[in-house]
Amino acid sequence: MAMKRVATSAIRAFTSSGIPSPSSVLTRELHASPGSKKIVGVFYKANEFASMNPNFVGCAENALGIRDWLESQGHQYIVTDDKDGPDCELEKHIPDLHVLITTPFHPAYVTAERIKKAKNLQLLLTAGIGSDHVDLKAAADAGLTVAEVTGSNVVSVAEDELMRILILIRNFLPGHHQVISGDWNVAAIAYRAYDLEGKTVGTVGAGRIGRLLLQRLKPFNCNLLYHDRIKMDPELESQTGAKFEEDLDAMLPKCDIIVINAPLTEKTKGMFNKEKIAKLKKGVLVVNNARGAIMDTQAVVDACSSGHIAGYSGDVWNPQPAPKDHPWRYMPNQAMTPHISGTTIDGQLRYAAGVKDMLERYFKGEDFPPQHYIVKDGELASQYR
Amino acid sequence: MAMKRVATSAIRAFTSSGIPSPSSVLTRELHASPGSKKIVGVFYKANEFASMNPNFVGCAENALGIRDWLESQGHQYIVTDDKDGPDCELEKHIPDLHVLITTPFHPAYVTAERIKKAKNLQLLLTAGIGSDHVDLKAAADAGLTVAEVTGSNVVSVAEDELMRILILIRNFLPGHHQVISGDWNVAAIAYRAYDLEGKTVGTVGAGRIGRLLLQRLKPFNCNLLYHDRIKMDPELESQTGAKFEEDLDAMLPKCDIIVINAPLTEKTKGMFNKEKIAKLKKGVLVVNNARGAIMDTQAVVDACSSGHIAGYSGDVWNPQPAPKDHPWRYMPNQAMTPHISGTTIDGQLRYAAGVKDMLERYFKGEDFPPQHYIVKDGELASQYR
User: Fold this and answer.
1) pTM of this structure
2) Cα separation, A327 vs A308, whole angstroms
3) SS3 of residue A306 by DSSP
4) Lowest CB count within 10 Å: A154, B18, B117, B366, which one?
5) A153 assigned to active site
6) pLDDT digits (tens, 9 = 90+) for A262-287
7) CB atoms < 10 A from the CB of B317, how many?
8) Nearest CA among A195, A332, A336 for reference residue B340
9) Residue B153 known to be catalytic
10) CA separation for the pair B242, B200 (Å, rounded)
11) What is the documented function of this protein (chains A, B) (predicted)?
């Protein structure tokens, strides 16, 4: 019941159509007390799904479940899913908002231009992990704080990566498509279905997600490799049995399966271009739940079409939402989804709690847990440098 | 190249259409030496896929890769995929075959009637695991030996089960269907997508496959339960952290996810009927790669339609191949495939080697590895009793 109230009161922000929604009559005048903040949240809209699960806090209607708490403290909380173009709902609030909460799943792109217009802006919070939709340099130059809920959905993403590895190597989707289209042809699946056991899996990046993936891969008896800027501590390395590969280009041709676990930065943007993909083993499987822009879109399409990449799966695209004509929707042997892996119900509850905790600290003038900072005092966190 | 020869020589057995295939001109007269045996193999036909992978030995065309070896020893080897009805190719060879090799993926049903007609039959070999397509009582009464390649694809099936658990709990398929139909609606996926971490997973049966599954589930930090006739040895139990549930009906309501890992026997046939399914938690996910007939087909459809079962995935059906109008093709929240999990390329190579080894022992009059026997000296193996 509590969730239903949240949902009802959140809906009033959806005025992007220009037509007042029936629930707009519920709008209360907010008498901002001194120190009261204007907080704007941009989340994906759930429509009929919003009321289907009381723990579905990550959508715009349920607004992280923090509306009652924020309003009881005298703050203003605007929530919308309308984030693009000069006439969008978000744009209207840019000039006077203090805090902007965004997510990687339905990214509100916080450009240098928007930052310039946002004269009151102090804090940019990412509900989830990955703040590359924010122009971090512009944010740092403007003296803003950018923080995310580090760790909130690392388990969610690592589990999802293992699922995608299995879907590709075991050739699940052609089998499922046979079922729904009334066919039965075991051979058409089996000729390219393999066990994961005994294969070589390499992760490009072994941060929190990469390490959780390696731990989950351990009992599958694979040959595990990882490339990162830093070697893992020996205990974790021996726990997973993964071997450090300092030279990425030396690791790539060894792998039957490559998983991307690197943040999107100036260095990783477009990193897997035609030349890099050519270094991969012919018939490689690629899983990328990191960021779509780490890949050269067309190079991936070409490699899937030629068979050099035998399967590509991930939930990240460039841009997001992926337009109807995005070529990854149409390339062969893809096992793609919309950006979902980090926004399971479990993940949502964790990042909603993390956002609430940071807002509470912000109101009190306290520091955040240090690992949450992406930009602090004009300085970028190390992985974004 | 060697594989191509196998494929060509195997094709001559495909005469079910009544029209001689162009390759039938390749047929050599086989001059059976004394002690020569007539061996018939029934496998799924691969057509254009047969030549696409040199290790694709499990199809009819490649015939386990043992044709040259068998024929060089003077044995006759007939291979077909035509297994049903009174006029099928298999039926023609029943009266004089000595050995029949079948698979669970494209089961040739060895009925009491066929056994009665097979006057020369001595040995029934299953390329794979699961010999329930054979009337085991009739085989025992007739003094036949029935054996399978125990262990040949247990890893394959366990991996596949973990994949299906993740596909269901993370709600993968609706997301993938959005991609191919040009949509983007994260909420429609997220409202019922969960992490596996923290959920309760119970396996009904903890034989070789069930144990491998539990080992692979270990790093996911689930609550693991298992029901079996016998408690695992304490070392394996503490290794997986799984808790023994002596009473199946007490375990069922505790589980968020149920995995069936029991053989099909008189006791397990139709075991998950309406009453048993009613004992499951509302919203349970069910994975069944064991045998389709363990479930009451309509009870599963009804429970998926009502939402009592929130997701059902497996590769086994009753009967197989599943007809076009099998209701599991059309029920909501299914993640089904044709029978594929045990016939990965890795699995095929293992069960082909196991069949060859048993044939070699059979020709020499030697015993098989004891764990391979399903019926020996008129006695059923313990799990089939």
Assistant:
1) 0.89
2) 17
3) helix
4) B18
5) yes
6) 999 999 999 999 999 999 999 999 99
7) 24
8) A195
9) yes
10) 10
11) Catalyzes the NAD(+)-dependent oxidation of formate to carbon dioxide. Involved in the cell stress response.
